[in-house]
Write a structure and sequence with these properties.
heterodimer; A: 472 residues; alpha+beta; Arc Repressor Mutant, subunit A; 10-stranded mixed β-sheet; 3-stranded antiparallel β-sheet; 15 helices; 21% strand; B: 477 residues; alpha/beta; Amidase signature (AS) enzymes; 2 domains; 11-stranded mixed β-sheet; two-stranded antiparallel ribbon; 16 helices; 13 strands; globular
Chain lengths: 472, 477
């Protein structure tokens, strides 16, 4: 089923949990960098929920949440407080989570996505539970579960949208934009394991039929979000088609099978019994504190894109801006080389190589100086486009590959090219015959051979001229 | 015989005490008293008890610690089976402080499980008996703490804790002095929570001097407790005997209704004496008092039900064999076995009061009433130096009477102590007279309440009351 032309109206709202990049946890001094660490080594009485321990709020996390809230055009609360959300689960150190309920740190914001406003309902702070490691072939078949409290107490910023998203694709774009924005704010790193988890609410309407709101829990990844929502929209549409009712329920998403499955119905909706967190005083947020944060906000992705789009193609700008460090590199190099040339090479060629290798610019060790040298070589025509691509492919793994600019210097000397061409023609008599009998593809084949023999260094224009002369 | 800490410290400074001898004698007596009365859940080893430095400021003064206050490497049960063998990895701040002050730790005193009770009959391990009459309760929940201070004829003080009256009640029933400071004055780091917005660590001693001395050591700002107040540490004993001149005391009429007639008589007799010595006492009305008890139990149980959720047999405390079962069943088995009846009752009450649909009617309403009660106290405090009332409306009941009480009747005994605990005002209970019942001479306690952070004033007023009423301390041995 194609959702775009099915006459289905979709309403999607997201609840995003992003792990904040503070150096210590939300209520204690333990480190937040649990990824790759020996389990249960980053713990203390507070994040283990030991009797007699008490939380102390990390001010940096408050600052980060305010950065996010300001970037999402939210209203910052003058005063807010924390609450206890109670439920029993083995990943909960205290069997309650310290979160915000009645008054969040910020509310009523929006994000403009291709000219459309997606409203942000609230932004609040809460603590991450511990990490469960299921021992066994799968979660369902696990024989037992191990608990790693290293993650317990990591600050999460929860961002809740109004149900303003109207397609799974749009939800994905929104999430990408949000993640990108958080990275620009230096409060979040999408490459860290488990750094973003999403709950999605979706309901559909078809003619006079409508589904109840269904919540899909714990989706991680942009692609997974789109897939889960697409599956769910189609599932609901088909059920409505059959005259079935879609009850309000909570579902999970199995990213291997790419299906959602029922977790619990409305009658089993969670009962959290919120109370005010009595171990933490009210949090007063001074205006001057907010003003100081406001002044320190960096240029955000959409602003940067708008600015770059004034002199480069919009698609290229989008591509460059989507990787914060790549964008930073771009802005540095265009002080020395042509903006458009740099845009094509960073936003298109390099970005493709990075994507193909599942890397981001900050993962590779290319310095800005190397990039300038590289782009200058292209600008001056010292290396060919072909050689440039090759060098770039090597450069992402080995920074000494930059020296190949010299090795792979463009060959413009017609005699040199001619020598290569002679060899190529001798080795491919059939192609020569084909060409003479009028097959144009044979010429392209022979040019390819010349380029390959020169490792792409031959000036393509000159090579064509030389070859043509020799054949005719 | 009066054996408060003042005389001990003076003699210690003058080099008149052989501490090894003192420690041995003290420990032996404590052991004997404990065998007879059951004041302790855990008595310290003699070696550890006596290994203290005989130096300023406390010179090895023996201190007992209520068993919901964490002591490093020393079992801390909070009176509950679920923490039967729990040994904390850290000291509570107040324990750190008294250790630094060279106090010796005699042991961990008996208490109602997690503080849930007024008679220390809800302790999983022992029920302390009142030294004035062994068939009666010491009060609760700090029953062991008050009982031991009363029974011991050598100098000793106790670290205790009050949520809704757990210091005042046993102090009153045992005829000793109990101080509950302003909420936030003493750090709660290391206190096993009952209801965090109400829990206050305080102390029990044989005299007003004793509690002033302990407060001077434990009252300080602590960044590990976010509700700890940023108040400079000071010596509350220094100006203790400088009595404020004309003391204006308010006596709320709501606090003198429905009293046991013997308690009533003892209280008014004491007030007469105070007035003769220049106190000006006037009746006032605190009309919201009637809602205090219900609000207290709703808030305390709501918070307690979340605080007790952490005890589920995973990281500490009672653990059971795992069998093929999901975590919910395992948690339920551990909690069914580990918690006593009163703990279960309060968990259920508290969970109910904060559930969607009831939350507004109970929990949030109780929180609003709490604000009204605080404001009401503040209004009275504008015109008076202190509030006086009986501490408990009854004499210490006999165990056979307690058994017959319904939970609600038991809760009602806290009617005079809950309002001030809800408001977080500093208060002190001291003996003001005696009553005789069934041939037993029993102490009656008076409550003195002052405004937030007016501990110095509270202690001075209490000291002048102590001087005027002039009671000898401790039951006849």
């Amino acid at each position: 089923m194609d959702l775009r032309h099915s006459g289905i109206k979709i309403k999607i709202g997201l609840e995003i949990h992003a792990a904040l990049l503070t150096s210590s946890k939300l209520f204690c001094r333990c480190s937040t960098r649990w990824q790759g660490r020996e389990p249960n080594t980053l713990t203390c009485p507070v994040c283990l929920g030991m009797p007699g321990s008490k939380p102390v709020l990390n001010e940096k996390a408050v600052e980060y949440a305010i950065r996010i809230a300001l970037a999402l055009n939210c209203k910052i609360a003058r005063e807010c407080f924390f609450s206890r959300k109670s439920y029993f689960y083995p990943d909960m150190a205290k069997n309650f989570q310290i979160t915000q309920y009645e008054i969040p740190i910020a509310s009523n914001g929006y994000v403009e996505l291709d000219g459309k406003k997606i409203r942000i309902k609230r932004v609040h702070l809460e603590e991450d539970p511990a990490r469960l490691v299921h021992v066994g072939p799968s979660v369902a078949e696990a024989k037992y579960v191990l608990i790693d409290y290293n993650r317990s107490g990591v600050p999460l910023c929860e961002i809740v949208t109004e149900p303003d998203l109207t397609s799974p694709r749009e939800a994905r774009e929104f999430l990408q934009r949000l993640a990108n924005t958080l990275e620009y704010l230096d409060v979040y790193d999408s490459s860290l394991e488990g750094s973003m988890r999403v709950d999605a609410n979706i309901s559909i309407q078809k003619g006079s039929m409508a589904s109840e709101r269904v919540e899909i829990k714990n989706i991680s990844g942009f692609k997974e979000l789109e897939e889960a929502l697409t599956f769910e929209a189609i599932r609901q549409a088909n059920a409505l088609e059959r005259g079935e009712k879609i009850p309000r329920e909570t579902r999970g998403y199995d990213s291997n099978a790419r299906v959602t499955y029922s977790l619990r119905g409305k009658e089993l909706e969670e009962e959290y019994g919120y109370i005010f967190e009595p171990d933490l005083p009210k949090l007063r947020i001074e205006k001057s504190f907010v003003e100081r944060i406001k002044r320190s906000l960096p240029e955000l992705p959409h602003q940067k894109m708008e600015r770059l789009s004034k002199f480069i193609n919009k698609e290229l700008a989008k591509s460059i801006v989507s990787d914060k460090d790549l964008a930073l590199a771009y802005e540095r190099v265009i002080k020395h080389v042509d903006k458009k040339l740099a845009a094509v090479w960073l936003g298109n060629v390099l970005k493709k190589i990075l994507n193909y290798n599942n890397l981001r610019f900050k993962d590779v060790c290319i310095t800005h100086e190397q990039l300038v040298r590289f782009l200058k070589a292209l600008e001056k025509g010292e290396i060919t486009k072909h050689a440039g691509e090759q060098i770039l492919r090597e450069l992402i793994r080995d920074s000494s590959a930059i020296e190949k600019i010299v090795e792979m210097k463009r060959i413009s000397d017609e005699n040199l090219i001619k020598n290569v061409a002679v060899k190529v023609l001798e080795a491919n008599p059939k192609a020569v015959l084909d060409y003479k009998s009028g097959k144009r593809e044979a010429f392209e084949f022979l040019i390819g051979c010349v380029m390959r023999e020169t490792k792409g260094r031959a000036d393509p224009k000159k090579a064509r001229e030389v070859l043509k002369r020799m054949l005719d | 015989m009066r054996a408060d800490a003042r005389a001990y410290l003076e003699r210690a400074k003058n080099g008149e005490i052989d501490f090894a001898e003192f420690a041995r004698k003290f420990y032996e007596k404590a052991k004997k008293l404990n065998e007879r009365y059951g004041f302790f859940i855990t008595l310290n080893d003699f070696e550890r008890f006596a290994s203290v430095k005989f130096e300023e400021p406390l010179f090895g003064l023996p201190v007992s610690i209520k068993d919901n206050i964490c002591t490093k490497d020393m079992r801390t049960t909070a009176g509950s089976n679920i923490l039967r063998d729990y040994v904390p990895p850290f000291d509570a701040t107040c324990v750190e402080k008294i250790k630094e002050a060279n106090a010796s730790i005699i042991g961990k005193t008996a208490m109602d499980e997690f503080g849930f009770g007024s008679f220390t009959t809800n302790c999983a391990f022992v029920t302390p008996k009142n030294p004035w009459d062994e068939s009666r309760t010491c009060g609760g929940s700090s029953g062991g703490a008050a009982g031991f201070v009363a029974a011991m004829d050598m100098p000793t003080v106790a670290l205790a804790e009050s949520t809704g009256g757990s210091i005042s009640c046993p102090a009153s029933f045992c005829g000793v002095v109990g101080l509950t400071p302003t909420y936030g004055l003493v750090s709660r780091w290391g206190l096993i929570d009952y209801a965090c917005s109400l829990d206050k660590i305080g102390c029990i001693g044989k005299s007003v001097y004793d509690v002033a001395l302990v407060l001077s050591i434990i009252a300080c700002h602590d960044e590990r407790d976010s509700t700890s107040l940023n108040v400079r540490q000071r010596d509350y004993t220094k100006h203790l005997d400088e009595a404020p001149r004309k003391i204006k005391a308010a006596i709320p009429k709501e606090y003198t209704e429905n009293l046991n007639p013997k308690v009533e008589r003892a209280f008014w007799d004491a007030v007469d004496k105070l007035e003769r010595e220049g106190f000006s006492c006037r009746k006032v009305s605190l009309p919201h008092t009637k809602y205090a008890l219900a609000s207290y139990y709703i808030i305390a149980c709501s918070e307690a039900s979340t605080n007790l959720a952490k005890f589920c047999g995973i990281r500490y405390g009672l653990e059971l064999e795992f069998s093929e079962e999901n975590f919910e069943r395992y948690f339920s088995r551990v909690r069914s076995e580990g918690f006593g009846e009163e703990a279960k009752r309060r968990i259920i009450l508290g969970t109910f009061a904060r559930m969607a649909g009831y939350r507004n009617k109970y929990y949030l309403k109780a929180m609003r009433i709490r604000t009204l009660i605080i404001n009401e106290f503040k209004r009275v405090m504008k015109n008076f130096d202190c509030i006086l009332s009986p501490t408990m409306p009854i004499l210490p009941p006999r165990f056979e009477e307690i058994e017959k009480l319904s939970p609600l009747e038991a809760y009602r005994c806290d009617v005079l102590t809950t309002p001030v605990n809800l408001a977080g005002l500093p208060h002190l209970s001291l003996p003001c007279g005696f009553a005789t019942e069934h041939g037993s001479k029993l102490p009656v306690g008076m409550h003195v309440i002052c405004d937030h952070l007016e501990e110095e004033k509270l202690l001075k007023i209490s000291r002048s009351i102590e001087k005027i009423l002039g009671w000898e301390y401790g039951p006849e041995a």
